[in-house]
TrEMBL record:
<feature type="transmembrane region" description="Helical">
    <location>
        <begin position="193"/>
        <end position="212"/>
    </location>
</feature>
<feature type="transmembrane region" description="Helical">
    <location>
        <begin position="32"/>
        <end position="50"/>
    </location>
</feature>
<feature type="domain" description="ABC transmembrane type-1">
    <location>
        <begin position="92"/>
        <end position="307"/>
    </location>
</feature>
<comment type="similarity">
    <text>Belongs to the binding-protein-dependent transport system permease family.</text>
</comment>
<feature type="transmembrane region" description="Helical">
    <location>
        <begin position="233"/>
        <end position="250"/>
    </location>
</feature>
<feature type="transmembrane region" description="Helical">
    <location>
        <begin position="286"/>
        <end position="305"/>
    </location>
</feature>
<keyword id="KW-0812">Transmembrane</keyword>
<feature type="transmembrane region" description="Helical">
    <location>
        <begin position="98"/>
        <end position="120"/>
    </location>
</feature>
<dbReference type="Pfam" id="PF00528">
    <property type="entry name" value="BPD_transp_1"/>
</dbReference>
<feature type="transmembrane region" description="Helical">
    <location>
        <begin position="132"/>
        <end position="152"/>
    </location>
</feature>
<keyword id="KW-0813">Transport</keyword>
<dbReference type="InterPro" id="IPR035906">
    <property type="entry name" value="MetI-like_sf"/>
</dbReference>
<protein>
    <submittedName>
        <fullName>Aldouronate transport system permease protein</fullName>
    </submittedName>
</protein>
<dbReference type="InterPro" id="IPR000515">
    <property type="entry name" value="MetI-like"/>
</dbReference>
<keyword id="KW-1133">Transmembrane helix</keyword>
<keyword id="KW-0472">Membrane</keyword>
């Protein structure tokens, strides 16, 4: 019995050693692939995971001169203050509506653009269109907001001047609260529409062309080919990107919103991101702003887990 145990232990150790050696051999064989992925891994470790240690200040009365170790612990005090603040529901409404508008109006458009570009047979024309719709992605939000300001300001804006010549009236697009969310969504679409279509175009490039040939032989037109071949082929890509999009559901984009805010539209434009900046950077309420940020991240995590679970229930692969 004792000899059998020794033999079994020896076999397990040899097996473990063999698997370890195989792992290192595979790393040596694919070393250039690991070197290529190393910058991305380091980026996430340094800028995503290491800063998570700072979330402990959400449960502290953090003082910069005392640091994390000596600052006093206050538990859920900052969360209770935040949820009890009348501005909480205003922030939640503003952030939620902007996020919902982006999902409803922005998310489908890169898919539609990719489908339209996929149908273009003139490669030169297709390349020109792709270049034109990709360029705005490389503009900073300062430039984007500046362009829209020059076009839509009531003081000599090109669009307002054109409208005035037609109907004799100007619209305060940049000041009127009713136009704020529309402006945010339109700017996001103009800036990121082309760039967002790249992944879908890559997915479409992997569709087997023989499926289209078989469908044409069966008498299927362009619309039926789109519905029965193209969309099912990229369905998993759409689901995964939608899940990832929900993870940043409450991330409205600080720089974009901050540049568009003014005294007239602040009531509908103040979101969690700008509120964190206001409390944390301008009023030095570090612990309170960390609590707000942690709440926002927790909602994103719940949405990712929930949407991934739903995707699995409906037979999709999901993110994990």
């Amino acid at each position: 019995m004792k000899t059998a145990k020794v033999r079994l232990t020896t076999q397990l150790s040899a097996k473990k050693l063999g698997s370890r050696n195989a792992f290192f051999a595979e790393m040596i064989r694919d070393r250039w692939l690991y070197i290529m992925v190393l910058p991305g891994v380091l980026y996430f470790i340094i800028f995503k995971y290491v800063p998570m240690y700072g979330l402990v200040m959400a449960f502290q009365d953090y003082k910069p001169n005392l640091g994390f170790l000596q600052s006093s612990w206050v538990g859920l005090k900052h969360f209770q203050r935040f949820f009890g603040d009348p501005s909480f529901w205003i922030l939640f409404r503003n952030t939620g509506l902007l996020a919902l508008y982006n999902i409803v109006f922005f998310f489908p458009l890169p898919i539609i653009l990719a489908l339209l570009l996929n149908e273009v047979r003139n490669e030169k024309f297709k390349g020109i269109v792709q270049t034109l719709v990709y360029i705005p992605h490389f503009f900073s939000w300062v430039i984007v907001v500046g362009i829209f300001y020059l076009l839509m300001t009531t003081e000599g804006g090109l669009i307002n001047e054109f409208l005035f010549s037609l109907i004799g009236k100007k619209f305060a697009f940049l000041q009127d609260p009713e136009w704020f969310r529309t402006m945010i969504v339109v700017q996001s679409i103009w800036k990121e529409l082309g760039w967002g279509s790249i992944i879908f175009l890559a997915a479409l490039a992997g569709v087997d062309l023989q499926l289209y040939e078989a469908a044409r032989m069966d008498g299927a037109g362009r619309v039926r080919q789109l519905w029965h071949i193209t969309l099912p082929a990229i369905r998993s890509t759409i689901v995964i990107l939608l899940i990832l999009r929900l993870g940043s559901f409450l991330d409205s984009g600080f720089e974009h919103i901050f540049l568009m805010l003014n005294a007239s539209n602040r009531e509908v434009g103040e979101v969690f991101d700008t509120y964190v900046y206001l409390k944390g950077m301008t009023q030095a309420q570090y612990s309170f702003s960390a609590a707000v940020g942690l709440f926002k991240s927790t909602i994103g995590l719940i949405l990712v887990l929930g949407s991934n679970w739903l995707a699995k229930r409906f037979g999709e692969e999901g993110v994990y």
